[in-house]
Specification:
The complex is a heterodimer. Helices cover about 10% and strands about 40% of the residues of chain A. In chain A, strands 4-3-2-1-5 form a 5-stranded antiparallel beta sheet, with no helix packed on it. Chain A is mostly beta strands. The radius of gyration of chain A is 16 Å and the shape is globular. Chain A has 2 helices and 5 strands. Chain A has helices spanning about 5-10, 115-120, and strands spanning about 25-35, 35-50, 60-65, 70-75, 80-90. Chain B is mainly beta. Chain B folds into 2 domains: about 5-120 and about 170-205, Double Stranded RNA Binding Domain; about 120-165, no CATH class. The chains are: A mainly beta, B mainly beta. The interface of A and B includes residues 4, 12, 75, 78 and 79 of A.
Amino acid sequence: MNPIIKEITASQLKTDLPPFKVGDGVRVHTKVREGDKERIQIFSGIVIAHKGTDIYETFTVRSIRSGEGVERVFPVNSPNIAKIEIERVSETMRARLYYIRKRTGKAAMAIKEKRLDVATK
Amino acid sequence: MISTLLGKKIGMTQVYDAQNVLVPVTVVEAGPCPVVQVKTVENDGYNAVQLGFSKKKAKNASKAEQNHAAKAGVAETPRVLSEVRLAAASELKVGDVVTVEAFAEGQLIDIIGVTKGKGFQGVVKRHRVAGGPASHGSMFHRRIGSIGMRQTPGRTWKNQIMPGHMGGVRRTVQNLSIVKILPEKNLILVKGAIPGANGDDVIVRTAIKGQPKQA
């Protein structure tokens, strides 16, 4: 990458992110502006994809809302993301969990879990 | 005030604006541009200033170029010289330096550059012709089709689209907005794409159209 462009984008990159990965259950705290008021909205689900580098880095969170699968793609470095909480840590066999889109019922959100205390060690 | 700068396209990236929206931007290194020559109606028949940009090694610059710059008090011979026509006589003097501070954030600008050369291209790429079916026995894939009628008019019209050389021409992109200016680095961040490859020379000027009407 051009050093000038790297310098411009470097200041916008976050350094305080938790080390979440694909398969983890996360709660994403997003800032929502309504008129002149700002509040925090939480989107929770499983990270099914984590793509890109630098300013282009994004991750996709999938959850089931009233029986319907919902996915949101977040830019990792967006100032609108206030916080990312890791709820549970999983072990996955895939880099991208697109196969869970085809699953229904209980299996839709079931990902092989790792015990949290083991993972955080 | 002068509203044109010479510059160089650095490349594209994305930045978050004040509303936290991710905006695609082109980074342009613009100026500093020393005024090398001032042309006036009395002397030259029209008003203009000649701006310089970047620098040239002394071994690559001719004596004429070197002395032309030295006469204006410009230490390093500019690699690019370009004239900017002005409606009225210039307030700028020879030796003045124009920088990105001539522009403001949020302002609309035009950028002029030379597009990337694409070589000899067919009509599908060059003129956005739809082309024919790919299969089902079609033997008409990316061809041009008919280029005219019959005995009347008995010739092909002027401007009939045909394959040929594409790209490598001067193009102006109008009404780009300035997302950010970094004066200490002589950089302008412009929303959207501009002509040319990274590292190509461009001209940045205040937008001719799209400016708020002056009362």
